[in-house]
């Protein structure tokens, strides 16, 4: 157990260093002066320019610069936005929870709908129901996320007026920022009609969540279906049938657990896809997440915000991927047993 944790800690540290090195290289790749890209401050005179260069050791060799960059980064000094003049750490912490909340809700739909439908399709393999579910999943997987989001907006917001068009909650609700996660902030707020606010926030969440969840749900259905079919063809399933176990007992005791184990590593890829798609959909629904924030930074050429925003998103994706892989390794002892034999 200790060896596994240490191995993943080393992996995460090396990956984080690589991401930091890439972020540091962008200082010299963006079409702006390195001191401005690094700090987000445009020097007003030569004295201020020299002071910033000395503070961040930009006149030293590249290794000294990178070491100083890391120390400032882990100290929480991420620079300031060229446009707003606000600290980037504050702006990212304001935008990132909205993206996490949207992606988490979409992942909930993927798991709750995708896995049961995939199991049903796999158990009824090559039947009419299987062909129908498979055809729908292929169609949904082929639809671009941004196009689906536009169709939802035109249909459910503009045509019928059933659901809100943009934002996270109606502006009539004054919800103080505490955690950045809207539903938690609503529950923590005072002097607020919480039921009405929660209902309004849920309505705002439906369209962007469905826009990014349907493609991943279709992918999860196909992955689960394939895994169920593979397990059903294993020799131990034939042995279980020969013992007289019912179909329900075989599915619960043998099929489900063995079919879900290969799916868990693939869920990390689905989460990465969900976060990427969420960043696309946020712009269409004016969702105040990290994706919309990065798009605005691109439009306004806020290079310091772009650099730190990409680093924050990349770090989040790496953390989630490693955490899911570690969880899968801990609940599947056979992987560690296999590694110990090969090593």
Characterization of the model:
By secondary structure, this protein is an all-alpha fold. The protein folds into 2 domains: 2-74, no CATH class; 89-299, MetI-like (MetI-like fold, Orthogonal Bundle), CATH 1.10.3720. Helices cover 76% and strands 0% of the residues. The chain is built from 15 helices and no strands. The chain is globular. The two termini are 16 Å apart. Residues 96-328 form the ABC transmembrane type-1 domain. Pfam families: BPD_transp_1.
Short description:
The protein is built from 15 helices and no strands.
| Secondary-structure arrangement, i.e. CATH architecture of the largest domain | Orthogonal Bundle
Helix/sheet category: mainly alpha
Strand content: under 5%
What coarse outline follows from CA principal-axis ratios?
globular
User: How many domains in all?
Assistant: 2
Low-pLDDT segments, ≥5 res: 337-343
Quick one: CATH class of the largest domain?
Mainly Alpha
Task: Report Rg.
Answer: 24 Å
End-to-end distance: 16 Å
* Helicity, as a percent range: over 70%
Number of strands: 0
Estimate the mean pLDDT confidence: 85
The CATH homologous superfamily of the largest domain is called: MetI-like
Q: How many strands, what sense, and barrel or not for the largest sheet? A: none
CATH topology of the largest domain: MetI-like fold
Can you count the helices? 15
Order of H and E elements: HHHHHHHHHHHHHHH
Domain ABC transmembrane type-1: 96-328
Subcellular location: Cell inner membrane; Cell membrane
Organism: Alteromonas lipolytica
Protein name: Peptide ABC transporter permease
């Amino acid at each position: 157990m200790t060896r596994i944790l240490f191995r993943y800690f080393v992996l995460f540290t090396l990956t984080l260093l690589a991401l930091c090195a890439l972020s540091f290289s962008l200082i010299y790749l963006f079409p702006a002066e390195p001191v401005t890209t690094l700090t987000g401050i445009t020097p007003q005179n030569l004295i201020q320019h020299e002071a910033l260069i000395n503070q961040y050791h930009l006149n030293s060799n590249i290794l000294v610069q990178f070491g100083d960059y890391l120390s400032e980064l882990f100290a929480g000094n991420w620079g300031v936005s060229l446009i707003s003049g606000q600290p980037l750490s504050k702006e990212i912490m304001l935008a990132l929870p909205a993206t996490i909340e949207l992606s988490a809700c979409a992942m909930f739909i993927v798991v709750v709908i995708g896995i049961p439908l995939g199991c049903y399709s796999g158990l009824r393999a090559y039947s009419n129901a299987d062909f129908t579910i498979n055809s729908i999943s292929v169609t949904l997987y082929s639809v671009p996320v941004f196009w689906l989001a536009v169709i939802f907006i035109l249909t459910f917001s503009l045509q019928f007026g059933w659901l809100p068009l943009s934002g996270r909650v109606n502006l009539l609700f004054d919800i103080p920022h505490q955690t950045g996660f809207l539903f938690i902030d609503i529950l923590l707020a005072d002097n607020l009609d919480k039921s009405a606010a929660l209902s309004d926030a849920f309505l705002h969440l439906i369209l962007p969540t469905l826009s990014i969840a349907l493609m991943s749900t279709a992918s999860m259905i196909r992955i689960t279906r394939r895994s169920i079919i593979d397990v059903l063809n294993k020799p131990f399933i034939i042995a279980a049938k020969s013992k007289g176990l019912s179909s329900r007992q075989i599915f619960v005791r043998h099929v489900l657990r063995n079919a879900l184990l290969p799916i868990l590593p693939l869920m990390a890829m689905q989460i990465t896809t969900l976060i990427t798609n969420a960043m696309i959909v946020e712009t269409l629904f004016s969702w105040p997440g990290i994706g919309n924030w990065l798009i605005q930074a691109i439009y306004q050429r806020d290079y310091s915000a772009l650099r730190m925003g990409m680093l924050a998103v990349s770090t989040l994706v790496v953390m989630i991927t490693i955490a899911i892989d570690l969880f899968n390794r801990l609940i599947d002892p056979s992987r560690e047993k296999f590694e110990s034999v090969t090593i």
